[in-house]
Amino acid sequence: MEENMDLKALEKKAWKTFFDDGLWDIYLGLLLALMGISALLDKTALSEGQSMGVYIGLMLIVMAAFFAGKKFITVPRMGHVKFGATRQKKQKNLRLILFLSFAVGLAAYWLFEGVNSGSIETDFSLNNIFPLIYAGNMVIVFGLMAYFMDFERLYFIGLMYALPVPLDRWLYASYGIDLDYLFFALPASLVVIVGIWYLVRFLKTYPHVQGNV
Questions:
Q1: Extents of the domains making up the chain
Q2: 14, 176 in Cβ contact below 8 A?
Q3: What does the pLDDT look like over 133-162, one tens digit per residue?
Q4: How far is residue 120 from each of residues 109, 112, 126, 130, 134, measured CA to CA in Å?
């Protein structure tokens, strides 16, 4: 029994160590920044298709950089670890949560855009409730991710994701000021800075391992 508990504790420690490189923080921070860039692109002369193309291109670059960082920075220092059945089950639950979150977010966005464009008729305006739906979805999803991934910084990242839309809608409704890109850029910067700090510490703590691991 004691040996099993020690193995579980060791597995959990090994799992959490993979987040010490800060790459997840940087990745999620840059994705949040891309939302601000998307809002900024809407104010340019680019067409909707061109803006979407720029956004998707930047997102693919960020994703490629994340996977490259894991491959060339983390794995050479930490090696490959095969986790047990309990950890794998948590990952399956996490994938289900992410799928449901995407479905809820997509449905909410479709409903919001449909009401605003007039294609969906209703006497109730979603302008006030949509920011709350968005913020609630971010808090719940990142909270569940933090729990299933044993990655506590996701609670903070979830809060940073939840704040921009409600704050932007409040500022615009109250004062007519549209600074949506800044409301995404500022919290995104905080998340990226935290990630860079962890990355620098990781590089100092773990020496580079030459050859195959």
A1: 2-205
A2: no
A3: 888 888 988 998 898 888 999 999 999 999
A4: 13, 9, 11, 15, 20
Q: Judging by beta carbons within 10 Å of its beta carbon (0-12, 13-18, 19+), is residue 114 exposed, middle or buried?
A: middle
Q: So what's the pLDDT on residue 212?
A: 46
pLDDT digits (tens, 9 = 90+) for 116-134: 545 555 555 666 777 888 8
Reading the block at residue 86, the tokens are 């309990």
Mean pLDDT value across residues 5-17:
68
